[in-house]
Design goal:
Layout: H1 3-13, E1 17-21, H2 38-50, E2 56-59, H3 62-65, H4 68-85, E3 90-97, H5 101-114, E4 119-122, H6 128-135, E5 142-148, H7 154-157, H8 168-176, E6 185-189, H9 196-203, E7 209-211, H10 221-228, E8 235-239, H11 241-244, H12 252-272
Parallel strand pairs: 1-2, 1-8, 2-3, 3-4, 4-5, 5-6, 6-7, 7-8
Helix pairs in contact: 2-4, 2-12, 5-6
Length: about 280
């Protein structure tokens, strides 16, 4: 998906919501466990019920790899289902890959050529030659680079400053500008970082940001929009647990839809402020 297509979907649906598909068999409704593929059964209902309110889905690979071959099959079926039923959706494989060049090249082949997802989360710790294989030769595909994450441990390294006062996350954003463009690179910036979005936007004024941490992790959508929104929106705000596990009865999909709708309505109000 191109940047312009993504922007058009955001303003058409008045939403920049991304629903995280982090499926834990210990948390889904018990009656689904009798299905042949309970992970896919759960995802399919979540997708069908939340599709009117979202522009993106983000399956986290850890929640599929944990179940071995059955998990991989469920991941592939989920991706194919979205592509076939909701081709306008932006699909992010949250896999946090990143390794030496030839290994990254194979990861890129897996997700962009085989699964044909739109975007892949990538860890930048190994530097340029571990990231550029994801950017080269994959038209209309996106790298989403980890920059400033929402977890407590992000303070261990990401916010450390060098002798010149530049923090590590700032160096990652500044340095990576030479690797990708706003047309093929986004950054992960956690919603719990609040005013630090201003620092991110000084370095990456036009890039889209994937924002986890709204909802269950306590991040504020209003703060994210105040400090991070651009004239093109520039945000994909992810919610996982707050939507998909809002209920664990037979009505789980209806409740998930309601939670997604509530977020979408808040997002519509924020989008009205920039009048695209």
């Amino acid at each position: 998906m191109t940047r312009q297509q993504l922007i058009e979907q955001i303003f058409k649906k008045k939403s920049f919501l991304c629903v995280g598909l982090d499926v834990d068999l210990d948390k889904i409704p018990e009656y689904l466990l009798d299905d042949e593929d309970p992970i896919f059964s759960f995802n399919r209902k979540i997708i069908d019920y939340t599709a009117p309110y979202t522009v993106a889905y983000k399956p986290n690979l850890a929640f599929y790899e944990a179940y071995g071959q059955k998990g991989y099959v469920a991941f592939e079926k989920t991706v194919m289902y979205i592509q076939q039923r909701y081709p306008e959706m932006f699909i992010i494989a949250d896999a946090k890959r990143g390794d030496i060049g030839n290994t990254s090249k194979m990861y890129a082949k897996t997700f962009f050529d085989n699964y044909r997802v739109d975007a892949l989360t990538v860890a930048p710790y190994m530097g340029e030659d571990s990231v550029t294989p994801f950017l080269n030769g994959h038209e209309n595909s996106w790298v989403i680079l980890l920059a400033l994450t929402s977890n407590k441990g992000s303070a261990d390294f990401q916010q450390d400053a060098d002798a010149n006062g530049e923090r590590l996350f700032e160096k990652v954003i500044r340095k990576s500008q030479a690797w990708g463009t706003p047309e093929n690179m986004m950054y992960v910036v956690g919603a719990t970082r609040g005013e630090m979005f201003k620092d991110v936007r000084k370095l990456a004024p036009d890039h889209f940001l994937l924002v986890p941490g709204v909802g269950a992790q306590g991040g504020s959508l209003q703060d994210v929009c105040e400090y991070g929104m651009t004239k093109d929106c520039g945000l994909l705000v992810n919610s996982s647990r707050g939507i998909i596990y809002a209920d664990n009865t037979e009505f789980f999909a209806d409740v998930a839809a309601q939670k997604a709708k509530e977020l979408q309505e808040q997002m519509a109000k924020e989008l009205e402020k920039i009048e695209h």
